[in-house]
Amino acid sequence: MDREPSVSDEDDDLETLVPQNHTKPPSPSPRSRSRVPFGVTSLRPALPSSAASFGRSLWSRRSLLICVALSVIVIILFFSLGGASSLPASIRLPSASSAADPAASRMREAELHALYLLRSQRSGLLSLFNRTAAAATAAPTNTSTPTPVSLSDLQAALLSQIKINREIQEALLSTHHSGVRNATEDDALDLDLPGPGCRRKDLPYNRRTIEWNPKKNRYLFAICISGQMSNHLICLEKHMFFAALLGRTLVVPSQKVDYNYDEVLDINNINACIGRKVVITYEEFAETRKKVNIDQFICYTASPPCFMDEDHIKKLKGLGISMGKIETAWPEDAKLKVPKKRYVADITPKFTTDAEVLAIGELFFADVEEEWLMQPGGPLAHKCKTLIQPSRLIMLTAERFVQTFLGGNYIALHFRRHGFLKFCNVKEKSCFFPIPQAAECILRIVEKANAPVIYLSTDAAESETNLLQSLVVFSDRQVPLVRRPEHQSSEKWDALLYRNHIGGDSQVEAMLDKTICALSNVFIGSSGSTFTEDIFRLRRGWGSTSYCDEYLCQGELPNYIAEQD
After folding, report:
1. Which one of 111, 167, 380, 529 is separated from 220 by 20 to 30 angstroms, measured CA to CA?
2. What's the whole-model pTM score?
3. Among 9-18, 223-232, 437-446, where is mean pLDDT lowest?
4. From CA 529, how far away is CA 116, in angstroms rounded?
5. Going by C-beta distance under 8 Å and a sequence separation of 6 or more, which residues neighbour residue 234?
């Protein structure tokens, strides 16, 4: 059976559930009351007044007791949870201490400003989303559809949101800055990450170039002595620039006094790109003459003259080359430790001569029109991406290696170690980094590039590369450091080199390493290494330079530097 409601419950229902259109019945007038017969009572029995008042009093006391109990519980919970500090910032009343604390006031202001910027960013992103969604779903015949967003509009909108994001960061960090901040850091925007990866830099539309039109029977005899192959390639590139300025054909050195350039470079490609015969090998040059003679020596480097030692002079004479008097273009430079910066206006009058064969000596250290020389594609007018590039056999072998081991998305790392410790530590800013620090720098690039594998070009000992590999771990996954394996007849990626009898040659393998690095999505180089600089040159020419390319730990110093011996 249903429980019969008590009087107090019924009264409470009547008080709280009265319809909104209920009206109280009018009180009977005295005349109407007088018409009621004496002794006749109402059909509803009236409760005694004392009982009704007692019920109402009992309910009021119960409600009061409940309210008091709840208040006590709330107060206890309030203080047990930390009092006013536990309240949300949006409803917390400012305390006297916070009002007196300017730091707290600044923090509050920064938070409110960041919140405002976040709302602005959300509004901007929603607007951008709606515009792109409308462009994607619009029917071609729907004339009422908003104009689709263009690529330039999209880039501008994204740039705006990136700037707002930076303002939000600055607002939140403003109360934590101490001292003077670096203005360049404040103004910098992380615009090198347009998406999840690192995009490539666009090639410039216009290059500053000169035409290379050699005069008949006028030659520049290249002499490159300093350092390894990478240094010699830089020297050779500068010789090409001088030959173009002076209107001469460049004679590439013989392998008996220099490297075998024919195995690593595509010399025919240089002539094809220029559109005429501008470079010849020493063998071609010697075939046209009964006797090879350098008619005039005007040395760019003053001390030692042309940077030639007695050993190199003996090698030249051993080829049957006779030489005239050696003179220097700027004798006063002999007192300088570093050659003075020169320009085209300095070079042309000093080296212009009617001599048939001219030599100017080592040019690796020549500081000549660096911005002109360093531009993508170099300073000479041609129809190719770059003039000095690997031979066709090396290019194909590099591409086959990439297809076999690396795939279309990889980072290349040139990790120079051998002899680099002493070389770097004598510099004002050392470039030799401890393995753990190097690993941290590499991981930052891995995060930006989102690449699954790293190609490692290094002369480091196995103990160093093993430690580096153990530390290159991203998102709980070890990122493989891939090196070129030893030749195996069962593997076909390097078959072309061995079929043409140049496989295993140290200079061919070095150029192969450079080519694999130059083909990568992102390249990390070793500061101070000409091997790295030649890779950067190739990447500039090929248009493979990315916004994430950099030297290892660029902008940092080693966290530990040993004393000099």
Report:
1. 529
2. 0.66
3. 9-18
4. 49
5. 364, 530, 533, 534
